[in-house]
């Protein structure tokens, strides 16, 4: 069951399809009109039939009213796209066209050009010419060119072309969906963590977003005044009592809290979750209570909860709030996640936002806590581990707070393997399994004097996954790290030996990065040793190539990844900055172009 939960989206950006054509009348243009428009329709159908918006609806495409043979038709298409809320464009052609007269000149829209690889008509020649124009004018564009020559009458889209079109569209839509939204900073800096020192300029210049701030006194004010939907609160609390099972209390006898106190903490935690959601996206139910300003929310597509310590020293922690909002379901059924970063780490919040928009799945927020070598595992557990997914060691992803309940890995793909899925694909049975695989524990009182309930689970093994981190570097700006790998399920005795070495009330994911034998991926230790911060995001699937494409659209360099070269897709002009050292070329290109909304 999909819920009708409040959302930041009132509409979704569309993909503009630009069929370009040789403008010469007298036989040339007339012979190409139908073929060119058919190519546009095929591309639009591919995108709309494959990709979905964050609510599960098909992505909409808008095709120019006519083929574009010159400047006037290019301008008419641009006018239509502005009216139709187009956020990215794909230009398609089977033939030669006049490059600078037909190109998309909007500097803010991600753009790609598909030139048909057929020898009868030089669509590929136009592709090369128009990409040269984009490079010369400083307006990056992605080039799409099929590997194999097709007959002029062949209207099929080759697999390699299809993959590039869809990858471009996924990433371009992520860019378009962020624009104009907000990051809601709920509180300020948590325990001196640099990532929670929210950088307004980064959000504005790179993502086209604004930062909204509220003090956490807003939570206690709304709790005390009952400024939330009372009926939904009662429904949510009843659901929690039925589905959120409590686990062991790991506090000492002198620091354990009473049953009465724990029940009160549960009630506050549920209210906090409702209030955080309302602060982000608003809630029309509040208007019915006369709270018209509060009902509007902050238009936030992502947020962060400061928590420690200004809040948690006095009130129940934000673990339940973050875990349930980041998940793909709650008491109302399946729904899109609300992205909320632990400890208001806005840089990890940005990474979570990227991952959700690229995959439509929930994200795991975690500490990159420990590297365990095989020797260290043997010393700690007495077991000599031999696991097909572990090369020389594993990384312990564990969060001093929650992660999305989807991270249990209880959802399965078409092959029955553990997965994290879009909310519209999650079954009621899978939601129940995620809840059953999670226990809720009274938080450790020394850490959280104000109480609260903490999540505990372990992620099922064998799931392809991608670990990322967005870092902010003085003098450089944001820079991205990516590590593809697999989740690993350890034997229960080994898991307990390692997991019990740290706080047992936090969710655990054992992650094995894919090693290349070079640089930061020489060993699992090197992956951790080169990581830029204490936090990371884990996205289900090997999607590092999507992160790389998205980063290039935003002009964010990638300085560490293990994605194979043949999967990397960046704008064509990146090649002008070097073809031998792709990492260096990426840095030079991003520095040259500057942030997408940088107003240079």
UniProtKB/TrEMBL annotation:
<dbReference type="GO" id="GO:0030145">
    <property type="term" value="F:manganese ion binding"/>
</dbReference>
<comment type="function">
    <text>Converts the aldose L-fucose into the corresponding ketose L-fuculose.</text>
</comment>
<dbReference type="InterPro" id="IPR009015">
    <property type="entry name" value="Fucose_isomerase_N/cen_sf"/>
</dbReference>
<dbReference type="Pfam" id="PF07882">
    <property type="entry name" value="Fucose_iso_N2"/>
</dbReference>
<keyword id="KW-0464">Manganese</keyword>
<dbReference type="InterPro" id="IPR015888">
    <property type="entry name" value="Fuc_isomerase_C"/>
</dbReference>
<keyword id="KW-0479">Metal-binding</keyword>
<dbReference type="GO" id="GO:0005737">
    <property type="term" value="C:cytoplasm"/>
</dbReference>
<dbReference type="Pfam" id="PF07881">
    <property type="entry name" value="Fucose_iso_N1"/>
</dbReference>
<dbReference type="GO" id="GO:0008736">
    <property type="term" value="F:L-fucose isomerase activity"/>
</dbReference>
<feature type="domain" description="L-fucose isomerase C-terminal">
    <location>
        <begin position="397"/>
        <end position="561"/>
    </location>
</feature>
<dbReference type="InterPro" id="IPR012888">
    <property type="entry name" value="Fucose_iso_N1"/>
</dbReference>
<dbReference type="InterPro" id="IPR038393">
    <property type="entry name" value="Fuc_iso_dom3_sf"/>
</dbReference>
<dbReference type="GO" id="GO:0008790">
    <property type="term" value="F:arabinose isomerase activity"/>
</dbReference>
<dbReference type="InterPro" id="IPR038391">
    <property type="entry name" value="Fucose_iso_dom1_sf"/>
</dbReference>
<dbReference type="Pfam" id="PF02952">
    <property type="entry name" value="Fucose_iso_C"/>
</dbReference>
<feature type="active site" description="Proton acceptor">
    <location>
        <position position="343"/>
    </location>
</feature>
<protein>
    <recommendedName>
        <fullName>L-fucose isomerase</fullName>
        <ecNumber>5.3.1.25</ecNumber>
    </recommendedName>
</protein>
<feature type="domain" description="L-fucose isomerase N-terminal-1">
    <location>
        <begin position="13"/>
        <end position="180"/>
    </location>
</feature>
<dbReference type="InterPro" id="IPR005763">
    <property type="entry name" value="Fucose_isomerase"/>
</dbReference>
<feature type="active site" description="Proton acceptor">
    <location>
        <position position="367"/>
    </location>
</feature>
<dbReference type="GO" id="GO:0042355">
    <property type="term" value="P:L-fucose catabolic process"/>
</dbReference>
<keyword id="KW-0413">Isomerase</keyword>
<comment type="pathway">
    <text>Carbohydrate degradation; L-fucose degradation; L-lactaldehyde and glycerone phosphate from L-fucose: step 1/3.</text>
</comment>
<feature type="binding site">
    <location>
        <position position="535"/>
    </location>
    <ligand>
        <name>Mn(2+)</name>
    </ligand>
</feature>
<keyword id="KW-0294">Fucose metabolism</keyword>
<dbReference type="InterPro" id="IPR012889">
    <property type="entry name" value="Fucose_isomerase_N2"/>
</dbReference>
<keyword id="KW-0119">Carbohydrate metabolism</keyword>
<dbReference type="InterPro" id="IPR004216">
    <property type="entry name" value="Fuc/Ara_isomerase_C"/>
</dbReference>
<comment type="similarity">
    <text>Belongs to the L-fucose isomerase family.</text>
</comment>
<feature type="domain" description="L-fucose isomerase N-terminal-2">
    <location>
        <begin position="181"/>
        <end position="360"/>
    </location>
</feature>
<feature type="binding site">
    <location>
        <position position="367"/>
    </location>
    <ligand>
        <name>Mn(2+)</name>
    </ligand>
</feature>
<dbReference type="InterPro" id="IPR038392">
    <property type="entry name" value="Fucose_isomerase_dom2_sf"/>
</dbReference>
<feature type="binding site">
    <location>
        <position position="343"/>
    </location>
    <ligand>
        <name>Mn(2+)</name>
    </ligand>
</feature>
<keyword id="KW-0963">Cytoplasm</keyword>
<dbReference type="GO" id="GO:0019571">
    <property type="term" value="P:D-arabinose catabolic process"/>
</dbReference>
């Amino acid at each position: 069951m999909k819920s009708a939960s409040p959302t930041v989206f009132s509409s979704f950006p569309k993909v503009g399809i630009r069929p370009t054509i040789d403008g010469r009348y007298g036989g040339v243009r007339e012979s190409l009109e139908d073929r060119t428009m058919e190519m546009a329709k095929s591309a639009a159908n591919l995108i709309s039939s494959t990709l979905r918006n964050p609510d599960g609806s098909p992505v909409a495409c808008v095709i120019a009213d006519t083929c574009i043979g010159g400047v006037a038709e290019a301008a008419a298409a641009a006018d239509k796209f502005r009216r139709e809320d187009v956020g990215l464009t794909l230009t398609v052609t089977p033939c030669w066209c006049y490059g600078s007269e037909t190109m998309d000149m909007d500097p803010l829209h991600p753009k790609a050009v598909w030139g048909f690889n057929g020898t009868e008509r030089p669509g590929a020649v136009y592709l090369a010419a128009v990409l040269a124009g984009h490079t010369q004018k400083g307006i990056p564009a992605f080039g799409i060119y099929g590997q194999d020559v097709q007959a002029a009458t062949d209207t099929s889209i080759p697999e390699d072309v299809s993959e590039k079109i869809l990858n471009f569209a996924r990433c371009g839509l992520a860019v378009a969906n962020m624009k104009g939204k907000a990051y809601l900073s709920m509180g300020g800096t948590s325990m001196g963590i640099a990532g929670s020192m929210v950088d307004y300029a980064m959000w504005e210049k790179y993502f086209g977003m604004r930062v909204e701030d509220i003090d956490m006194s807003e939570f206690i004010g709304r709790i005390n005044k009952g400024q939330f939907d009372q009926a939904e609160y009662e429904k949510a609390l009843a659901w929690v009592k039925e589905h959120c099972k409590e686990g062991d209390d790991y506090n000492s006898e002198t620091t354990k809290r009473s049953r009465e106190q724990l029940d009160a903490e549960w009630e506050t935690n549920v209210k906090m979750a409702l209030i955080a959601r309302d602060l982000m996206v608003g809630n029309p139910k509040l208007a019915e209570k006369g709270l018209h300003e509060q009902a509007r929310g902050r238009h936030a597509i992502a947020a962060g909860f400061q928590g420690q310590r200004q809040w948690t020293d006095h009130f129940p922690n934000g673990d339940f709030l973050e875990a349930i909002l980041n998940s793909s379901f709650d008491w109302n059924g399946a729904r899109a996640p609300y992205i909320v970063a632990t400890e208001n780490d806005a840089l990890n919040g940005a990474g979570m936002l990227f991952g959700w928009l690229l995959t439509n799945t929930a994200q795991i927020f975690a500490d990159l806590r420990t590297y365990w070598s095989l020797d260290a595992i043997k010393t700690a557990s007495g077991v000599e581990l031999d696991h097909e997914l572990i090369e020389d060691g594993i990384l312990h992803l564990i969060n001093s707070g929650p992660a999305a309940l989807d991270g249990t890995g209880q959802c399965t793909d078409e092959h029955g393997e553990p997965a994290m899925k879009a909310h519209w694909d999650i079954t009621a049975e899978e939601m129940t399994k995620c809840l059953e695989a999670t226990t809720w524990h009274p938080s450790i009182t020394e850490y959280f004097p104000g109480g609260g309930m903490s999540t505990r689970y372990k992620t099922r093994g064998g799931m392809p996954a991608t670990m990322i981190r967005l870092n902010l570097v003085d003098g450089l700006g944001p820079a991205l790290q990516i590590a593809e790998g697999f989740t690993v399920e350890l034997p229960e005795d080994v898991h307990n030996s390692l997991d019990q070495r740290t706080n047992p009330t936090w969710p655990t994911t054992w992650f094995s990065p894919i090693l290349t034998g070079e640089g930061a991926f020489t060993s699992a230790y090197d992956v951790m040793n080169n990581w830029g911060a204490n936090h990371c995001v884990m996205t289900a699937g090997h999607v590092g190539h999507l992160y790389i494409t998205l980063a290039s659209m935003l002009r964010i360099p990638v300085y560490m990844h293990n994605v194979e070269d043949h999967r990397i897709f960046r704008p064509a002009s990146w090649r002008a900055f070097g073809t031998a050292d792709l990492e260096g070329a990426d840095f030079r290109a991003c520095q040259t172009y500057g942030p997408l909304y940088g107003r240079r």
